Amino acid sequence: MPDKENRDGSARDNIVVGHHYDFIDGLRGIAVLAVIWFHASVFFFEVLGGDTSGYDTYYRLTLLGQTGVDLFFVISGFLITGILIDTADHEHKFKKFYIRRALRIFPIYYGFLLFFTLILVSQSYWSDVFSWKHVSFYIYMQNWSFQSHQDIFALLNHTWSLAVEEQFYLVWPCLFWFLYKRSFKSTVVFCCIIIASSIFLRLCFSGYGYHKFSYTATFCRLDGLIIGALISVVFCNASGFLEKLRPYLLPIMVGSTLAMLVLLIGAQDNFSAHTFMMSYGIIFLNICFAAMLIMMLFANKNVFKSLLCNRFF
């Protein structure tokens, strides 16, 4: 799963992420539980030999679980961009940013990969040890494959989202600081272009049958990250605009979710439902997650926010 960040740790007063957002921890908790639910259902249907007949509605509902990753992307885009805003005028900002990102994820990630490599060596899978598949995980390029691994590397399939995040971290600071120091409007326009382009590319590749590639390739998955980034930019520079949206946020959340559910459950078959969630479904969920994040940023302590702040989540 994508790594997390709540604090900048810098000396100056931070604008966006200078304090801890308890409700974001709750959103992460829900995202984790959703992903576990989805993968548990996959194991369940594998026990049935892949037969989902008689469980169509349940199977399609479990597909919602995989969108926990999309919620992580929106949150990550918001928090990381907040850090970039807060440190835009800091000395050695690039060095500090990349060191912090590396310390957040590299130790446990490469420790996990090393453990996996030792398993390959112990089982004498020498062709796999020196294969491009194996190397791609060490350089965060595993998400560019057109097919999910069906061999021993299937044990690492879940790391694709980390690759998307690390590639985003590598490029986004340079682009963002270049634009943000020049104009707030140009930053907003650029974000909107990236969001639209990412959706367009995902739908194109999915339309040509490259469903897995459209789901994991970085340029097809930037919309969630940049939506979060856009919220961070507007929250910092034009929070009044976001506040004006408050009366519409709950209807947007409910409407986008209901529309997605109707299309998901009404799909022709389970394969169509799955491909729908990997293409158009992400659009509906990103709209819902964006509205949810904005609503929580401005909400007083209500029932939903209190639930998200619960220590269980």
Mean pLDDT: 89
SS-based class: mainly alpha
Total number of helical segments?
15
Distance between the termini: 16 Å
- The radius of gyration over CA amounts to 20 Å
List the helices and strands in order. HHHHHHHHHHHHHHH
Q: Into which percentage range does the β-strand content fall?
A: under 5%
Count of extended strands: 0
What ranges have pLDDT less than 50 throughout 5 or more consecutive residues?
1-13
What global shape is seen? Answer: globular
Helix content: 55-70%
Largest sheet geometry: none
Describe the protein's architecture and organization.
With 313 residues, the protein is mainly α. The protein has a domain at 22-89 and 159-308. Helices cover 70% and strands 0% of the residues. Helix 1 (22-47) packs antiparallel against helix 3, helix 3 crosses helix 10 (222-237) and helix 3 (68-86) packs across helix 14 (280-298).
